[in-house]
Amino acid sequence: MKKLPFNKKQIEEIINDFPTPFHLYDEQGIRSTVRELKKAFVKLPFRNYFAVKALPNPAIMKILYEEGMGMDASSLAELMLCERVGITGGNIMFSSNDTPSSEYKKAKELEAIINLDDFSYINYLEKTVGLPELVCLRYNPGPSLNESSESFIIGKPEEAKFGMTGKQIFEGLVLLKKKGVKRFGLHTMIASNELNINYLIGTATILFELAYKVYKKAGITFEFINLGGGIGIPYRPESQPVDFAKLASGIRNEYEKIQKKGLSPFKIFMENGRVITGPHGYLITRVLHIKNTYKSYIGVDASMANLMRPGMYGAYHHITILGKSDGAKKYDVVGSLCENNDKFAVDRQLPNVSVGDILIIHDTGAHGHAMGFNYNGKLRSAEVLLKTNGKTKLIRRAETVDDYFATLV
Ligand SMILES: Cc1ncc(COP(=O)(O)O)c(C=O)c1O
Q1: Ligand 1 pocket residue status of 229, Cβ below 6 Å
Q2: Residues 161-174: pLDDT tens digits?
């Protein structure tokens, strides 16, 4: 279990400045993870494009960009966030699906790399905004995957709405070339929260083999191959983080193998979000009520509106009670939504909890605040950055009731 980057006194001081609930992000931890990933891949022409959807906050994006990452945007708003931080051109990968032309227009204006999710989008893009010089296509390997995934989020590729078949990839590339496109990229995203290194390396094998087939059949080569995101994190205390060095070395083997076969060098991209910021975020929330009925409930001032993963996927997030240790009693930790899945934990062994205690919900730095919503009129919380100098900075204020009413006509 990773050590918390703050102590009890620090959290108490932070809570004096920012009322609970809020997400707290550890800048030092984020920077260290980026550096570790870069170091592991140093022998490859590698770059990670941070999946903006994981933590769409300009302050965080700026840190990641400073550390050399590109941005993977999936919507107009995420493209605009990149623009706001001063990130443009080949530093943005635009991987969207079911995309309106207005979004392609913005991507083209920013000269982002456009990644097409479907064969039919080739004509759509051409007609609506024109084809850029560089186009990437998103592959869905369907049932051809043989290594079974530990991932519980993405499921079977053939059931996923994303990407196109191998045949469509081939035909799409030939068509794009005919239409004057000069540079090509290849992409897939078949892992999510994946801790199995073989599965992650398998993604590289699949894409490199496909690239080789395309080259043999159509003479098309690739400027880059994007292996997608999906490196998992150890949400559970007993899980181990992915060994970046082993992952990089496995991918390097595949890279060297395919080059020996005759495929010319290409850049290797990934678009991880979770592994970059996930472990460095904490949802800080206070106990409002203890309720004892058929079970014991800890009612906190955060709800599923601030962190949806446990309610949506039954996902595990570790919980620490500030200043208390050792599990003594089983509780369900719940929010105030009128939904019975508004639970951060079920039957969790925790120390004896009292009203007013501070709970730290771990690993909320990716797909946490970002998935927030307003059901029951619940408001999204603030986001606070714990800077490398130990000081804090508010990087997103909490929503107010006025924000909730702002869209009413
Ligand atoms: C296309 C695409 N790329 C990257 C990601 C990032 O995944 P992760 O944060 O698990 O690395 C996602 C997640 O939903 C995605 O849909």
Answers
A1: yes
A2: 899 999 999 999 99
User: Is the bond into 141 cis (omega within 30 degrees of 0)?
Assistant: no
Catalytic residues, which ones? Answer: 338
Q: In the chain, where does the domain assigned CATH 3.20.20.10 lie?
A: 41-272
Indicate which residue's Cα is closest to atom 10 of ligand 1: 230
CA 74 to centroid of ligand 1, rounded, Å: 9
In 3-state terms, what secondary structure has residue 60?
helix
CATH fold of the domain at 41-272: TIM Barrel (3.20.20)
pTM of this prediction?
0.96
Q: State if residue 274 touches ligand 1 by the CB under 6 angstroms criterion.
A: yes
- 316-359 pLDDT, tens digit per residue, is 999 999 999 877 899 999 999 999 999 999 999 999 999 999 99
SS (H, E, C) 331-386: EEEECCCCCCCCEEEEEEEECCCCCCCEEEECCCCCCCHHHCCCHHHCCCCEEEEE
Does ligand 1 have an atom closer than 6 angstroms to the CB of 115? no
Backbone angles phi, psi at 336, to 5 degrees: -105, 10
Start-end of CATH 2.40.37.10 domains in the chain: 278-405
Q: Which top CATH class is 278-405? A: mainly beta
How many CB atoms are located within 10 Å of the residue 298 CB? 26
The ligand 1 atom at the shortest distance from the C-alpha of residue 275 is 11
Please give the sequence-ordered ranges of beta strands (E in DSSP) within 64-119, or none if there are none: 70-73, 92-95, 113-116
Question: What is the end-to-end Cα distance of the chain in Å, rounded?
Answer: 49
Element (H, E) at 349: strand 343-350
| Total residues belonging to the chain | 409
Q: Is 392 a pocket residue for ligand 1 (Cβ < 6 Å)?
A: no
Burial class (CB in 10 A: 0-12, 13-18, 19+), 205: middle
Ligand 1 pocket, mutate which of 47, 162, 190, 271 (most atoms under 8 A from CB): 271
